[in-house]
Amino acid sequence: MFFKSKTYRKSYLKSMLFVLPGIILTVAFVIYPVINTAWLSLNKWNGIGGAPVTWVGLENYIKVLTSEKFWKSMLNALYFMIGGFCILMPIAFGMALLVTSKLKGIKFFKTAYLMPVMLGTTAVGLMWTFMLNANFGVLAQFLRAIGLEEYIINWLATPTVNIWCVVLVNEWMYAGYNMLIFAAGIVAIPDEIHDAALLDGCTGLKKIIHITVPLCKNMFMVFSVICVTGCLKAFDIVWAMTGGGPMDSSATPAVLLYTQGFQYKLMGRSGAISIILLVLGLVLSVLLNNVIFKEKD
Amino acid sequence: MKKKLIAAMTALTMVASTGSVVFADEVNYDVENHEFKDVTITLHTRWDEADVSGPLYQDIVNGFMEKYPGITVECINIPTESEWLNSESVLMSDESSMPNIIQEYGGSRTAGYIEQNLIVDMTPYYEQYPEWKERFNAMGENLTDFTTYGYEGSYGVPFTAYQVMLFYNEEILAANDIDPASIKSWDDLMAACEKLKANGVQPFEMGEKDDYRFGHLHSALNYKTFGVDMAEKLGTREVAYDGEEQKQIYQMIKDAADKGYLGTNLLGIDDGQERSIFNTGGAAFLFMGTWYCAEDKTGNEFYDNEKIHAMRMPYVNEEFALQDMGGGNEAYYVVDTGNPDEVAASVLFLKYMTSEDVVNTFAEGYPSPLCVDITTEAGNYLSKEASAIIAETEDVRGDIENYDIATHMINTVRQALQGIAMGNSVDEVGKTIVDLIAEYE
Hints:
The structure holds 2 protein chains of 2 kinds. Chain A is mainly α. Chain A has a single domain, classed as MetI-like fold, CATH 1.10.3720.10. Helices cover 71% and strands 1% of the residues of chain A. Chain A is built from 13 helices and 2 strands; from the N terminus they run αββαααααααααααα. In chain A, strands 1-2 form a two-stranded antiparallel ribbon. In chain A, helix 3 runs parallel beside helix 7, helix 3 packs antiparallel against helix 10 and helix 10 packs antiparallel against helix 13. The model of chain A has no long low-confidence stretch (mean pLDDT 90). Chain B is of the alpha/beta class. Chain B folds into 2 domains: 213 residues, 3-Layer(aba) Sandwich (D-Maltodextrin-Binding Protein, domain 2), CATH 3.40.190; 223 residues, D-Maltodextrin-Binding Protein, domain 2. Chain B has a 5-stranded mixed beta sheet. In chain B, strands 5, 6, 7, 8 and 10 form a 5-stranded mixed beta sheet that branches. The longest helix of chain B is centred in the N-terminal third of the chain and has 24 residues. About 2% of the residues of chain B have low confidence. At the A-B interface, helix 12 of A face helix 3, helix 4, helix 19 and helix 20 of B.
């Protein structure tokens, strides 16, 4: 009866009014573009306004999934994920431990770690492109100075090496940002737990493994979801450093969807890549939440 | 009586509506006498504020707005080729975002816009102002004539022109006992490169990081080996990209690249760095379009002492010695946005841009070949050398991929050619192109 009461309806309408702007924005900027992209992925369109849009069914998906370029780009996304979990996560966590400790001069470290986050991606990309230049870059100069000239290669033009350079620059750029995620988890651990661990003789690495890491589980989950979805849609740093080249050797799926759409004028195929990435991102996020980080009963 | 009245009214309505349709279809091509009130037009260009030409283009825009206060011109200038191309694709994907004028290079991409009736046919405007059309020389025809794509008419207003040439440092060649006059064929050039390399001098330092560099070399070598007709043959697939003829071209590039003649860090430097290295004496030759003549050379001692000179791109087959890569460099196409005022204002802007005084002023500041005849003695010593070479040229074509039926070819071919700098074989280059053609069909 309550649900049908005038009071309820009034308060329901009032609540809806508050929620409405959010719903409108989500529909306009998320739901509608996704539906439109899904529809586009089933059609053929050359990207010119007014040009005919032809229904091709699943052809775009078949072409994408059988394309060598797409799987190469997925491999590059996998490199980003490997870098994220094997390099970025331990570094960011270590930095978080450091900035939450009571070391002297911690303010300097905090500022230094956050500095790359504050720089624009294009600026970071350009800076590292110059630093990694085989002719005049600082790394090449350094290797030359210490007599290791034979190790100078064109880092950003050599397949596999170039994507790993981009991955490492990406980790350098985002270490500070992810440090904040872990630091938030570490400072939330009550002091009593640390004191109890100390009384039990659990200190140093033992404390990190048995106390800090398990109690930061949610932070690891947040990091994992951000890392996986971020790696699938990595675009800006790749574009700024290599443009996905040479010969698409450093292209990520997001770079590929952009070039297929706006350079090759294959809007349907570009849409198909978008939908594949969206579905993959959702599936991996759900798997991480429900399988790897599932709360035990 | 009532029926008669209804019938008469219906008949009148029919006649009136037909008349209004006929009336609405009438377009006033006399844009100079069109009244403009608060009309804003958008230009999408590659104009570079940091380049010598940048302020000159801006002067044209400012001069136009001063002369026609009812029209405001807004520019979207993106100098980097790939970024400009991407931006144009984004803007042209929706009718609401289309600029009023786009800078383009003709070819299949522009033909794609014409196919969708997005580009205004300039023929009636040229008929309205015959003296305007007469001012254009033959160099820009490749940018305005789309009959090979099946579209009659004249699209776009051509502006600058170019020809790809070899620029050389006279001092470096003399120091290595190489007579530039002796370089007539590709073999002569390779022999000179061998000599330079043996003496520890870098012949070329190409910036293939911008993948158009090998793209241009591929086009130029095709014309110098098989003549300019190869553009249409490749474009219609009469000649295959993995056939023996094309492999011969890839092999010439590969041989030169493998021997280190074309550069020491092909994929690590871009075309700007390539020019800087040549300007500072780091390379003996520069393979570049004639726009190089007009670039800012402030403080370049080789240029100041007239040590940099131009020569024709060497032939592979002597029969085609005077056939080159070149033609109209840039043209401006009016986009049919459906707004007659905007279309008229755009046409008027291009008419102003190509008027005698404006072109003369532009040519004085930017001495590069133009598709519009100039009546001034403009130019520096290098542009005069280039003009003398152009005057003897028999036939030209632009980027060979632009004559292709598929719009993706310019990216496909350039990317595959980049593989040469990565060590790919000529078979791999051909296969990559053919596989991608099949994939994108």
